[in-house]
Amino acid sequence: MTEFRKAERRRRVQRRMMKLVTVMSTVAAVLTAGYSFVSEGALEPKEILVPPLVITVSEEETPVGSGPPPAAMKEPAQSTSEAAAIPAPPTYLGEFEITGYCSCDICCGKKDIKLTKMETVPKSGYTIAVDPQVIPLGSYLEIEGVTYRAEDIGQAIKDRSLDIFFSSHEEAVEFGRQKKDVYLK
After folding, report:
1. Once rounded to an integer, what is the mean pLDDT over residues 91-116?
2. Do the domain assignments include residue 79?
3. 109 and 180, same structural domain?
4. Which of 19, 49, 74 is the last residue of a domain?
5. Alpha-carbon torsion 172, 175, 181, 185, what sign?
6. For the chain, what is the domain count?
7. Domain match, 99 and 166 both
8. Contact 143/178 with Cβ under 8 angstroms?
9. Residue 163 sits in which domain range?
10. What's the CA angle centered on 39, arms 173 and 25, to 5 degrees?
11. Which residue intervals define the domain 3D in the entry (predicted)?
12. CA dist., res. 152 & res. 138, Å (int)
């Protein structure tokens, strides 16, 4: 093999390595962004859909000595018990006294950073404060058909009382104090 062909082969290998590094860094960036999105409390990890990574290598780009290209990967078949699994109905916890709160200084006091106890940004219609001795943090609660996540605690939240997060103080005050049935999902 001539020196010219050896140099040409080295350049091709370097180009392929650069493509691989680019793809790997893109995948790392997507996974990191997905993790930070989940850690913000927006979605559960099972709800993030990441498309499968498929790299196609033509025969002329196949490195020498690497053998035939790998066979197409197939998704594992779901077991019949998983496919037939029906989600369990929510568990009734009882009637709770529910109030509203927001991130203003009146509701939460003066803080530099207004995060929940689970260190997430509170979201209206999603975040709820609970007594962690009654309902564990991270639990999902259903109140009148709306699903909330227990991400926060409060000084006044004891026993069978909950605090729903609202985006404004006016909405929280308008909600007032109500008794509602609560279900654990």
Report:
1. 85
2. no
3. yes
4. 74
5. negative
6. 2
7. yes
8. no
9. 91-184
10. 145
11. 127-183
12. 9
